[in-house]
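Problem: given the chain below (142 residues), write out its structure.
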Amino acid sequence: MPESETLVDVSAIEILISMAPLVIVALISNKLNLGIESPIIVSTIRTFVQLSILAYILDPIFVKGVELWWLVVGYCCLMVLLASYEGSARSKYYIDGQFWMVLFPMFINVVVVALFAFFVVIKPEPRWDPQYVIPIVGKAFF
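Solution.
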């Protein structure tokens, strides 16, 4: 398939426009003296920066990942590692080996969901097509 059929190009302007409702809520918050406009503006800017960085990371994976299975699997492993770290680091309580206690079940969950999704339900060709694998593996955390 040509690249134009598989990837949707979203410009920085379009991302900024999509954040307009948050800016409107911040303006309403300011008008009503709710005091939540600062966190909304900071979160909006942070989201824009994070999505921009993520786009630069994911673009080559989506383009080359159809041919290079290890690139997709590597990114999925990175997602599992980061999610495990975040899940174990944000807890109020800590026990020895907590990271590994989060990583192991999360990894098993992702593998089971991925195998079922890609070999039974969706059956993409190739099975590691990043267009399907990355969103579904990311969704397996929730």
